[in-house]
Here is the input.
Amino acid sequence: MRRKLQGQHANNSLGRQNDHYDSYRLNGNSNAVIEDGNEADLYSLQMDMPIKVLNGSPGYINILDGLNAWQLVSELAEATGQPAAASFKHVSPAGAAIGVPLNDTEAQSLMVADLSIDPRRPSLASALARARGADRMSSFGDFIALSQKCDEITARLISREISDGVIAPDYDDQALSMLAKKKNGNYIILRIDPKNLPAEDEVRTIFGLKLKQKRNAAALSTDSFTDVAVGDGGEITAETVDDLLVACVAVKYTQSDAVCFAYRGQVIGMGAGQQSRLNCTRLAGEKAANWWLRQHPRILSLPWRANVRRAEKANIIDAIVAGIRVDDGNSMSLLQPNSIAKNAATEATERQWNNYFATSVKALSQKERKEWLDQFKGVCIASESHFPGRECIDLAKQVLLRTHALGKLYLIMCVY
Here is the structure.
C-alpha cells in the first residue's frame, strides 16, 4: 500500500465511496516539507481521477503546485494561442511564459544556447526556457507545468535542471524515457486530462471547518484589453497584449499580495505572498531589473572555468549584478546588495572567486548598471488587486531603472 501513486490506482481503505470518489494515497513527505511520515490522500469528486502518476512519488505540496501550475498554463495557452509553461515553487509561480521565439541574447542568458530551439516559431521549449529563466534562484527545485505534450527537446531542457516534477497532458516516448531517469528514477511525472473541468464550487477544510466558494473561472483574452487607454496617442501592439495576458494570468495564480512584471511573453519579476503591496512591487521590480542585467554583454561573456554547474552560475551571476566587487581575484566584498541577491552574495563570498572564473572579473559598476537599465522599455506590470496609491507606480519606475526613463509602462490591475 505504500507504493504511493506509482502510476496505479491505490485502492486503499478510503478508496471509492458510493462511487462518487476516486482516491490516491500521497507521499507523506510532501516534497520534504512534512518529514514526519504523515499520510495524505488525494480525492476526485468525479468518477475518474483526472491525473495519472507516470513516475515518482508525489507529496502534498507537489500536487498543489502541479494543479495550480496546470491551471495557469492551460489558461495562458487558451488566451494567447501559444504554448505555455510555468515554474512553481511553494504554491506560487517563480516564472511563467508563452513560447515567444528566443533571440540569441536571450538564449545565451537563459542558458539554452546549446539546444536546438527553433528561433523562428513559438515552441514549448522556448516557453519553458523563459519560465525557468525568470528567476532561476526561486525555480531551484520547482514543479513544472506544460500546456501541451512534452517533446524531446523540452525534456532535454528539464533533464538538466534541478526540478522536483512536471505535469503535462502527455509526453513523447523519448521525453518520458528521459525524464523517468531523472533524480535516480524518482522524478515526478504527472499526466493530466486536458478536457477535465472542475466543479463550480471549491471546498477546503481548516481547523475542522469547511469553507466553500465559487471557483475563480474568470477568463482573460485579447478582447480584455480593447478599451485600455495608452498615453501620448500610442497604441497597444499584439505583443504587448500578450505580455499583459502573461502578467494578469500569472498573478491570478499567485498568493496575494501579488505584483508581476512581464516582458517579451514572460514573467520577469514576480512578487508573491507579501503583506505590503509596496514591498511586493519593490520585490518584483528588483527581480525584473536582475533579469535584464543578466543580459548585459559583460555578463554574457564571463570567463567561466570548465565544469561550473548551472546552479552555481546562476547564483554567481545574481551576486555580480547585485554589486559585488572583485578585489584580488580571491575574495569579494559587497558594494550595494539588493534584497534579491544578498543571500547569493553571502554564500558566494565563502568561496574563492577563482573557483569559478579563469581570469579576474569586475562587477558591473553603477554606471554600467544605469546605462544598461536605461535601455529597458515597454515593461508590463499587473497586480491581482488595486494599488492603494501612486507610490507603487513611482517605486516600480525607480527600482527597475533607478531613473525615470522607463518609456512606456503598461499597467493593469486585475481584480478577480
The longest strand covers residues 92-98. Confidence is low (pLDDT under 50) at residues 1-21, 28-36, 325-351, 401-410. The longest helix spans residues 60-80. The CA atoms of residues 65 and 91 lie 5 Å apart.
